[in-house]
Design goal:
Chain lengths: ~475, ~240
């Protein structure tokens, strides 16, 4: 609407193409260091295995070993890998990460209050440098479990659940997910039995502090939502200093029959923090699962988001807003696997890229032959603000059924000059006028937020990110 | 108030305005009429400061200040308002919030405090009443899903709120049914005073039955080829534009 764009199938547009000079030596150096990180992780795995040997009652030990072997054989993905072509990891793998952080950092709630959605009552599962903070958390076992994965992995009463769900939908082919699985130990464990509406949102927050100069975190979340149950979850990773952090998180979400799962990811971290988020969702019939991803911060952010259907009349919603600048990169890699008839997927990603930032969107939708009467919609709209910004967008629809409604649209554009003139002619300065138009551009993805306070928060974050104070909360 | 002297302007190397002279005094209503492509909309956009138009010669002076090189928002802050033929949709920003921002940015630019919320609301309520605008309308997203008539009425609402010295109404009558036209005209007439001025840009004489102009100018091929009183509009309606070429 405010976009002068065109519909395209497969796009890679650059403002300016950056050529690199004289990096050969450095490249070599980085390669060696990456080897070092891989070696370090391999060595660490043995020590890690010893440290968690108590939970041998479950099959987790085997799962970790297999995943470890997969990572050992494949290593980190490189640009040669089609799925990682536009998201080079080498700049974030060059650090000498500490992979076993110490548990000696205390945080006062008042210092981190702003990172919580504190306007509403909520359950909280909070980690500091990968280690559970009971002080900042508010967990429960009353009617449902909102607690720690480490506890669930250790205690026999959870064995059946763990064996039934743990690592059943996380990718076995993505080496970065395997790496997380190999080191999986701690994270959020949410198990909601059937016919339960969790009355308040659950916040999962991972803080990292300055006590480790370079830190690698590998949290693991398991979310099981029973038949007819309803849950809202907000996940956030937040660095509290400008030390280098790399988080490689895996979340498995299971939505039971007619369950409703609303999941929100707030990615507004420091410029020194990178995030690889791998989220896998499995849905039973008539369930509705929505994952909303808001990427405003960080250095490199990669979101692997995959939906798998296990029944009819399922709805999957994937929404995202990315607003980045500097040399930030956000990569949304999504997959929706339609296996059964009469299901729907709705995908809406909006991207605003300034300075020399890079956006990547890869939206894969597979409709299998049995999945007749599928409705699959995908929309990816991007605005490049500066000449140096880049977007690589690739919708990928593979349809094997013949009676389906599938559509995709991808636009890349700049702000509409006539629209800008309209606002400025009403006395609104250029910067504020641009911000209003960008906000309007992102607005439909914002309207998907079902927690009013969160919507207010995100709109404020957007205004802040766009650098404007309009005198009202947009 | 407004003096346009020998104004030449082009867009993308195409000369559109070829020497316009126009003098508008406070308290006056001027109508600019002319066939399609004569330069009517270009003239209003150039006065409002649209950057895609390049002024190649001449000047636009508002209250003894040369507007040359002024950004559109600066011109707005000096009291120029232009109602658009095709207003832009801004999803997620309500009519109320938009007008608050516009007013307070203008006040800020003129060294005034923000208008207190109470006064703002009162003013919004009174103006909405004057233009027969339903209160629900004010909490809708700006122009989103508005009918043609609603958009035009909303433009006049913004004009009334911003109280400009010089209002340029660009084809405000198009897309309005007769009742809406009367409401809009009634609003403009009530806001008219001896301190402000109105330029009505229109293809047809229809709106001029309700907002009676003091002067009518005919624009043809980038120049004003004839000026006269309100009777000129009727003459044009009867004879068309061809006799002036």
């Amino acid at each position: 609407m405010n976009l002068k764009g065109k519909n395209i199938d497969n796009v890679s547009r650059h403002g300016t193409r950056n050529t690199k000079h004289g990096t050969r030596n450095t490249e070599h150096g980085i390669k060696e260091r990456r080897m070092e990180l891989k070696e370090k992780l391999i060595t660490s795995f043995l020590a890690f295995e010893n440290s968690v040997s108590t939970d041998t009652e479950t099959n987790v030990h085997d799962i970790r070993s297999k995943a470890f072997t997969h990572f050992e054989q494949n290593g980190f993905p490189t640009k040669k890998d089609e799925e990682w072509k536009y998201t080079p990891l080498k700049s974030i793998l060059k650090y000498d990460y500490n992979v076993f952080p110490k548990a000696d950092t205390a945080i006062e709630f008042k210092d981190v209050k702003k990172y919580f959605l504190h306007e509403v009552e909520s359950y909280k599962i909070v980690f500091i440098d990968g280690i559970y903070s009971s002080f900042l958390s508010d967990t429960t076992h009353d009617g449902y479990d909102i607690c720690l994965l480490s506890a669930a992995l250790k205690k026999p009463k959870y064995k059946m659940v763990i064996d039934h769900y743990f690592n059943t939908i996380a990718s076995k082919k993505e080496s970065i997910t395997s790496l997380n699985t190999a080191f999986s130990k701690e994270g959020a464990y949410i198990n909601i039995p059937k016919n339960t509406v969790v009355p308040k949102p659950i916040q999962i927050v991972y803080f990292s502090t300055g006590s480790e100069a370079q830190l690698m975190l590998q949290p693991r979340n398991l979310v099981i939502v029973g038949e007819n149950s309803h849950v809202q979850i907000v996940e956030r990773h937040q660095s509290l200093t400008d030390n280098v952090v790399l988080t490689n998180v895996v979340t498995e979400i299971f939505a039971g029959t007619r369950a409703i799962v609303d999941y929100y990811k707030i990615q507004n971290d420091q410029k020194t923090a990178s995030l690889i988020d791998n989220t896998y969702v499995q849905q039973q019939r008539q369930s509705v699962a929505s994952v909303n991803t808001f990427s405003f911060g960080g250095n490199l952010t990669r979101n692997n988001l995959e939906f798998y259907h296990e029944g009819e009349h399922i709805t999957s919603n994937l929404n995202g807003i990315s607003i980045i600048g500097d040399k930030q990169l956000v990569d949304n890699h999504t997959l929706v696997m339609h296996k059964y008839p009469n299901c729907e997927s709705h995908e809406l990603y909006k991207g605003i890229y300034a300075d020399k930032s890079t956006g990547v969107f890869n939206g894969k939708v597979i409709v299998e032959q049995e999945a007749q009467k599928t409705n699959a919609f995908q929309q990816n709209n991007n605005i490049l603000i500066d000449d140096g910004a880049t977007i690589n967008a690739k919708p990928q629809l593979e349809i094997f059924a013949d009676d389906v409604k599938c559509s995709h649209g991808c636009t890349i554009g700049q702000l509409d000059k006539d629209a800008l003139f309209y606002l400025r002619s009403r006395g609104i300065p250029k910067k504020e006028a641009e911000a209003l138009l960008l906000y309007a551009f992102a607005n439909d993805a914002l309207q998907k937020i079902k927690i009013a306070e969160l919507k207010t928060r995100i709109t404020r974050l957007i205004a802040k990110k766009l650098g404007v104070d309009l005198g009202f909360d947009l | 108030m407004l003096e346009i002297k020998n104004l030449h302007a082009k867009v993308e190397d195409k000369d559109i305005l070829k020497g316009i002279n126009l003098n508008v005094k406070a308290g006056e209503v001027h109508a600019i009429m002319g066939p399609n492509g004569s330069g009517k909309s270009t003239l209003s956009s150039v006065i409002a400061g649209k950057e895609e138009y390049e002024v190649t010669d001449g000047e636009i002076i508002l209250d003894n200040i040369d507007l040359d090189d002024m950004a559109p928002e600066e011109r707005a802050h000096k009291g120029i308002f232009m109602s658009f033929q095709y207003p832009v949709e801004i999803p997620g920003v309500t009519v109320t919030n938009f007008i608050k921002t516009a007013i307070n940015e203008t006040r800020k630019a003129n060294g005034k405090e923000e208008l207190p919320a109470k006064d703002m609301l009162k003013k919004i309520r009174e103006t909405a009443q004057l233009l027969e605008i339903d209160r629900k309308f004010l909490s809708r997203s700006l122009n989103e899903g508005f009918s043609g008539g609603e958009k035009k009425r909303n433009e006049i609402f913004q004009m009334a709120m911003l109280e400009p010295k010089l209002a340029i109404l660009d084809e405000t009558d198009s897309g309005l049914d007769i009742d809406a036209l009367k409401v809009v005209a009634n609003g403009v007439n009530k806001l008219k005073s001896d301190k402000n001025a109105v330029i009505i840009i229109t293809h047809y004489q229809r709106l001029l039955d309700y907002i009676v102009p003091d002067f009518v100018h005919v624009l043809h091929d980038g120049k004003i080829v004839k000026s006269g009183g309100k009777e000129l509009a009727h003459e044009l309606e009867a004879k068309g534009y061809d006799w002036l070429k």
